[in-house]
Design brief:
single chain; alpha/beta; 8-stranded mixed beta sheet; 5-stranded mixed beta sheet; 26% strand; disordered N terminus; binds zinc ion
């Protein structure tokens, strides 16, 4: 009797499992981490001809992805050392003041993840507000475009606006150096996509969230929603024409695949997104 009851129960459970399959593998969740703020005197430096002379606050984020095969971090924000400067760090001749209210190391700790737990690591590009804490992740495989790798570790890193000290310790990391797109976990749920223009090997990340669906993490492909809508690229980009072509290519991709664009530096858009230690699914 007991065994028959168990058998019926097992059959019922199997049926229930068929009706509502438990997701196996893939991306479980993503933490959107506040990784500083950059206050600027004139936003039109990033949006030529638009909002000339207007001050602006750019948000800055890091993204921690929990995949069945391990943790992946995308971008590392402003340097944690700026947290010791409550009045911020003034740069670009006073045009930008950079803040880091809560160090990335502290945010990770709050989530319960140590830097050494993160085995997969990529940055959109190597500018200081994305590579500020890169040196924390020497134990991870680095996913990077060949052109960015060459610029970062070549003799003229500063020519590209990079501060080599930010990421110098990644030199010996295992690296997946690619030209184009790369499927990080081999299941299509986390894709690095080449998006050059802002820097020689700039890239974006497409993450297939279990409930939200596919989300593209912008890096600096565009800085603001209106840059995306109206196809605006800063004149200081490595290649402005290539930046425009990248916007066109990614708009086409996003439309065809129903992918949302989450813009790292758009404070207004990010106000609507759940932040760590909560997560998005
Ligand atoms: Zn940048």
């Amino acid at each position: 009797m007991q065994s028959m009851k168990t058998g019926v129960l097992a059959a019922a459970l199997a049926l229930a499992a068929c009706a509502t399959p438990t997701p196996q593998g893939g991306v479980d969740r993503m933490y959107v981490i506040n990784c500083g703020e950059n206050h600027v005197k004139d936003v039109s430096r990033w949006t030529p001809g638009v909002n000339v002379g207007k001050p602006h606050v750019f948000s800055n984020h890091c993204y921690l992805i929990k995949h069945a095969k391990g943790w992946m971090l995308w971008d590392t924000g402003n340097a944690d050392r700026l947290a010791a400067m409550p009045n911020g760090f003034s740069t670009a001749g006073g045009a930008i003041t950079a803040y880091m209210k809560k160090p990335l190391a502290e945010s990770l700790k709050e989530i319960g993840v140590a830097p050494a737990d993160i085995k997969h690591f990529a940055m959109s590009h190597a500018h200081g507000d994305h590579s500020g804490n890169a040196n924390l992740f020497t134990g991870a495989t680095l996913y990077i475009q060949r052109a960015e790798y060459a610029a970062m570790f070549g003799p003229e890193a500063q020519k590209f606006g990079f501060i080599a000290a930010n990421y110098e310790q990644l030199r010996n990391n295992p690296a997946m150096i690619v030209d184009g797109d790369y499927d990080v976990f081999g299941d299509g749920t986390v894709m690095v996509k080449a998006a050059p223009g802002h820097t020689p090997g700039h890239q974006v990340l497409v993450v297939r969230l279990p409930k939200t669906g596919p989300v593209m993490l912008s890096g600096d492909m565009v800085h603001l929603q209106y840059s995306w809508n109206y196809r605006i690229a800063p004149s200081f980009n490595f290649d402005v024409q290539q930046s425009m072509r990248t916007i066109d290519t990614m708009k086409d991709y996003a439309q065809k695949t129903n992918t949302q664009l989450w813009i790292n530096h758009d404070l207004e858009q990010n106000a609507k997104i759940q932040k760590a230690p909560q997560w998005v699914q």
